[in-house]
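Ticket #4471: structure export looks truncated?
Reporter: QA, pipeline team
Priority: medium

Steps to reproduce: submit the single chain below to the structure queue and open the exported record.
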Amino acid sequence: MRKELGLLNLICILIALAFVALAVVSVLSSGDFLTIDNLFIITVSLVMALMFGLPVLFEMYSRGKLPIPFVKRPDVPAQAAISGAAPSRGAKSAPQVKAPTTPPLLDAKGRAVPPDVKAMMNRMTPTEAKDA
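Actual output as written to the record:
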C-alpha cells in the first residue's frame, strides 16, 4: 500500500510540474503577455498544477513531514507530559499533568474522539441491569 501511494504521489508531482512548465513556456514564448488566450492558458495550467499538487501536500502533512510555518508546536510532547517525564529542553519546570483515570476513547483509526462525541457515547452505554 505504501509503495502504491508513493508511486501515485510521484506521478502527481510530475504532472503538476508539467503544468507549471506549460505555464512558464506560455509566458516565455508569447509576444504579448496580456492577451486573453495567454492568460487563460496560464490560469488553467496553474489551477491544474494546484489540483495535482494538493493531494501530495495533504499526504505529507498527515504524515508529519510537512511543517506548517508560523505554527508553534508544544515544547513537551503529550506522552512525556502524561508520564511525568521532564521536558527535553532546558526550560523552567512545567506543572505536572496527572494521567487520566480512564483510557481515552478512540475511533476506528486510533484518533481521539472529540469531547461532545465522548459525552454522547457515555450517555448511550448500557447501565448495569438491576435485578428485580
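Status: closed, not a bug. The export was complete when the record was re-opened. Leaving a note from the reviewer for reference: Residues 28 and 107 are 52 Å apart (CA to CA).
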